[in-house]
Amino acid sequence: MGTFREFLKQYNSVTEKCFGACVRDFTSRSVSDKEEKCSKNCLDKFLKMNQRVSLRFQEHQMIQANGQTLT
């Protein structure tokens, strides 16, 4: 359950940041093409960054594990 809660926190944080960075025109009910493209890019960057950090963390964990078994 804790993992899902963390996912929701992260999702809400990204949503809030991307919305704040991309949505500027509140005079229309529709989302402009520019706002939609910005929000998609924002989410894409976040997902790629998250994937890269996860991979680096896994690499670091493997290096530490290998170093501990040699000692």
Automatic annotation (TrEMBL):
<keyword id="KW-0472">Membrane</keyword>
<dbReference type="GO" id="GO:0005743">
    <property type="term" value="C:mitochondrial inner membrane"/>
</dbReference>
<dbReference type="InterPro" id="IPR035427">
    <property type="entry name" value="Tim10-like_dom_sf"/>
</dbReference>
<comment type="subunit">
    <text>Heterohexamer.</text>
</comment>
<dbReference type="Pfam" id="PF02953">
    <property type="entry name" value="zf-Tim10_DDP"/>
</dbReference>
<keyword id="KW-0811">Translocation</keyword>
<dbReference type="GO" id="GO:0046872">
    <property type="term" value="F:metal ion binding"/>
</dbReference>
<protein>
    <recommendedName>
        <fullName>Mitochondrial import inner membrane translocase subunit</fullName>
    </recommendedName>
</protein>
<keyword id="KW-0862">Zinc</keyword>
<comment type="similarity">
    <text>Belongs to the small Tim family.</text>
</comment>
<keyword id="KW-0479">Metal-binding</keyword>
<dbReference type="InterPro" id="IPR050673">
    <property type="entry name" value="Mito_inner_translocase_sub"/>
</dbReference>
<keyword id="KW-0143">Chaperone</keyword>
<keyword id="KW-0653">Protein transport</keyword>
<feature type="domain" description="Tim10-like">
    <location>
        <begin position="4"/>
        <end position="59"/>
    </location>
</feature>
<dbReference type="InterPro" id="IPR004217">
    <property type="entry name" value="Tim10-like"/>
</dbReference>
<keyword id="KW-0496">Mitochondrion</keyword>
<keyword id="KW-1015">Disulfide bond</keyword>
<comment type="function">
    <text>Mitochondrial intermembrane chaperone that participates in the import and insertion of some multi-pass transmembrane proteins into the mitochondrial inner membrane. Also required for the transfer of beta-barrel precursors from the TOM complex to the sorting and assembly machinery (SAM complex) of the outer membrane. Acts as a chaperone-like protein that protects the hydrophobic precursors from aggregation and guide them through the mitochondrial intermembrane space.</text>
</comment>
<dbReference type="GO" id="GO:0015031">
    <property type="term" value="P:protein transport"/>
</dbReference>
<keyword id="KW-0999">Mitochondrion inner membrane</keyword>
<keyword id="KW-0813">Transport</keyword>
